[in-house]
Amino acid sequence: MKKNICSIFSALILFTPSLIWAVPESQMNIIYNLLDSNAYQYRGFTGQNNIALNYMKFGTDKPKGTIVVSPGRTEASVKYLELAYDLDQQGYGPIYVLSHRGQGLSQRVLNNPRKGYVRNFFYYAQDLNQFMDDIVLPENPKKRLYLISHSMGGATAAIYSQNFKSHFHKIVMLAPMLQIDLGQQSEREVLWQTALVCKLPFGPYCTDYIPGGSDGEMREIFEENVVTSSKVRFDFKESLLNRWPELKLGSPTFRWLRESLIATRKLRHQSAINRIQTPILILQAQDDVVVRNYGQDQFCERTPYCSLKIMEQARHEILFERDEIRNKALEAIKSFLSH
User: Fold this and answer.
1) Which of 101, 109, 123, 190 has the fewest C-beta atoms under 10 angstroms from its C-beta?
2) What is the pTM of this model?
C-alpha cells in the first residue's frame, strides 16, 4: 500500500506542470541581488546610421539554445534580468537583451534624451538584423536561436521576419504592438494629424511630445498604472529607474507615433505577412489598453505560421505580471520553444 501511495505521488509530480524554475514574487530578492553580480555584462555594437547600441548578455552557453529578447518602448535591457535568469535555469543561454535605439543605454539622438523618437521605424528591424549578423550569429554558430519580443519589440520582430532572412527557429510575441490603441481616433485620422505637424512650417515640431506628453519626471504610482497587477515587479522597474536615472524615457514624439502607425499598418498587410516563414506564438493580454488586440487577431489569422493564446486577466506587460499570470505565460513559452 505504501509503495502504491509513493507511486501515485511520484506520478503527480511528473505530470503536474512544474513552475519552481520561475522566480516567485516572494523571492524577488534573488533578482535584486543579481544586479550587483557578474552574471550579466553590458556590451555595445553599431547599428544603422552609426548609432551606438547597447545590449545585455546574461549567462553562458547552454544546450537548449540561445535566446534574443526584443523589449518594448521605454524598456532598458536590465529590466529583463528576471526573465534571463528564469530562461538560464531552464537550460537556455546565453540570453541577449537588446536596448533599442533611443532607450536604455543605447544612443539617443535628440537634445532632450527623454523624448521617445525614431526617424524611421524600420531602423529597429535593421538594428536587430545587424545585431544578429555582428554579435549573435558569430558567438553562437550552429545553435538554435529563439526570439522573445514584447510590445514595440514585437512589431520589430514582425518587420524583421518579413524583410530579412530570419535566423530564428521560433519567435514569441508578448502583447505585440501590431496595432496601437488610439482611443476613439482611427489610424487614418492620427496619420493625417501627424502629417500636418511634421510637414507644416508653423505650429509644433515633429520632435515635440504628443499632446499630454512629458519627460516622465513624475513617476507613476502602482495604483494608477495600467500595465501590470504585480506591485512587486512594478517596484522592481521603479527601483531600476531610481538607481540609474539615465534609463528614464518620457512620452512619444509626433515622429515616433507617425512612424509607428505607418509601420504597423504595413506589417499587417497580407503581402507582408506572406513573407513570414518562422513559427510565431502570440501571447495576447486580455486586459490590454496599450495596444489593440484586434491587430494581433488579424495578423495571426493571415498566416499558418502563427498561433495565438489569450492570457486571461493579463495587462500589457505579461512577463511583469503577478505570478499566476506570468507563470502561465512562461509555461506557454517553454512548451512552444521545446516542441
Assistant:
1) 109
2) 0.93
